[in-house]
Amino acid sequence: MRPLALSPFKHAFQHVDRLGSWGADIPLRLFLAWEFFESGLEKWNGDNWFEQINSAFPFPFDLIPAGLNWQLSMWAELIAPVLLLLGLGTRFAAFSLMVLTVVAIAAVHWPAHWSSLSELALGYSISDKGFGNYKLPLIYLVAALPLLLNGAGRLSLDALLRRKA
After folding, report:
1. In this structure, is the dihedral angle defined by the CA atoms of residues 106, 112, 116 and 117, taken in order, positive or negative?
2. Positive or negative CA dihedral for 56, 57, 58, 60?
3. Are residues 61 and 39 in contact, defined by beta-carbon separation less than 8 angstroms?
């Protein structure tokens, strides 16, 4: 009895599986690193506008002076993306950026006034027409979640350090 030949699709998916085991996290790491680093550079080159919204920050961040919140946010957005690129401390970096994003959603992107789910749903957009604007930060949260749960994967300094240990 002859063994069945692998179908072309099964053979192709075996290659995709091997590739995925090495680099499935890389697009997420690149995407998040770019987006957050860009935001950090805007803070680096810009003026502190946190004084206008500091009271909207969730506890305990509302207790921290606006200048310190600005510095914490800026440095998190500059350092954590570099860690993501390197795949070093990936879970910590992803968690840090997720906390930063939740604070941003609460303070800036969540609709100020809504009385129904349909009004809340209006904020799930990328626009400057009011109603909040939490779609993009929510995308960042969802993209960071696999990095928090799985780490950086095989092509990372985290994996290299694990192999050495």
Report:
1. negative
2. negative
3. no
Whether residue 38 contacts residue 44, with contact meaning beta carbons closer than 8 Å, is answered with: no
**Model pLDDT for residues 19-30, shown as the tens digit of each residue:** 777 778 999 999
Q: Which two tokens stand for residue 83?
A: 């860690």
The verdict on residue 66 lying in a domain is: yes
In sequence order, which ranges of 87-151 are alpha helices (DSSP H)?
A: 90-104, 117-121, 135-150
H/E stretch holding 80 reads helix 66-86
| d(C-alpha 145, C-alpha 108), whole Å | 21
Amino acid at position 7, single letter = S
Can you give the pTM of this predicted structure? 0.84
Counting the structural domains of the chain, the total is 1
Domain of residue 31, residue span: 23-164
Whether residue 113 lies inside any domain: the answer is yes
14 within a domain of the structure (yes/no)? no
